[in-house]
Amino acid sequence: MADASRSTLLAEAADLAGEVIALRRRIHRRPELGTDNPETQARILEALSGLGLEISTGTSLSSVTATLRGSRPGPTILLRADTDALPMTEETEWEDRSEFEDRAHMCGHDAHVAMLVGAANLLVARRDEIAGAVRFMFQPGEEGFGGAPQMLDEGVLHDGLDEPVSAAFAIHVTPNLPVGFVGARPGALMASTDDFAVTVRGRGGHASSPHFANDPVPVACEMVTALQTFIARRVHVFEPAVLTVAHLSAGTTSNVIPETAWFEGTIRTVSEATRSQVRDGFERVVRGVAAAHDCEVEIDLRAGYPVTVNDASFTPWLADVVRDTLGPDAFFDLPWPVMGAEDFSYVLQQVPGAMAFLGVCPTDIANSLEAPSCHSNLMRLNEDALHLGAALHAAVALRYLDSGS
Known about the structure:
Order of helices and strands: HHHEEEHEHEEEEEHEEEHEEHEHEH
Number of strands: 16
Strand content: 25-35%
Helix content: 25-40%
Largest sheet: 8 strands, mixed
Radius of gyration: 24 Å
Structural class: alpha/beta
CATH topology of the largest domain: Aminopeptidase
Number of helices: 10
CATH architecture of the largest domain: 3-Layer(aba) Sandwich
CATH class of the largest domain: Alpha Beta
């Protein structure tokens, strides 16, 4: 990417800010869940119309894949945005808050879509500079539904391309970084996720005579404690793992020992080796405690997303692009991974690339670490940052294709 072109990219993105913000607000008001986001898909298609992109939609999900072919042959880079919302209630007072009580864009995916559409506009205007192709991946179903592997199965990395995708980039907004800052790190960026549910079966009876019953409640409580001990004492301190029991339920009243107790939660790790160790240890601990108390146990341990791993070479290269595009102090080296999970991890298993966090802290919050985070019912974002994300998407694509990587 020529210096003159790079110097004007941010200004051109600023000129598009109004359109980007308006699209984000339209999507925010009408959130959709899972892999079926038809209204969001329609807004994306409308926003991309007239740009001269090659566009296709998914068959198993309401995805949009758009391809910009440059003026000369070359490699292909993929830029990704997720489109789905969360099944929760937005508690903000914003005039453009969700119109629904049971779903809301409290993770910023509405902003991701708008920024990527803005980037498409910037890149189309530079088609003559592009040697290769840019593939835009608008993906539903990130919030636990695995939309990314579905799009991989449908050929997002290769179908209709002269050269398969050879690099990938995605932005995730965060209110916990100030506007103007981008955070990333090589290696593990986000955790794997495995969810579990455990049913402990004892024998019910009268609460006054526990010796005639086999109370599953203290057994379930012992399991919870034993699992925390396992994490603290058996997992390497520099290979972190988080095991959280988030929901425990048993019984119906004060004078009845129930037959069953039940709990569920999640496991997060940042390496596949630790993930395997914790999964194996989880079953061993739970079954061992159950056997010690002569209880039966049923375990439902569901594998979720893998660790999101940023490529060791692409990430420092990305840091240079961020500094050149947004300013010399714009890039922030994350000191440790984030324990949330992302299905962009599946894309990064196939091609080198990275995900980065874009700061969107609201202007009325002085300390970004105190801002309501993604997935909070009070999460807000500073829309002044959205054109920065559009510019960064475009800059990454232009620099990658200019280098002929």
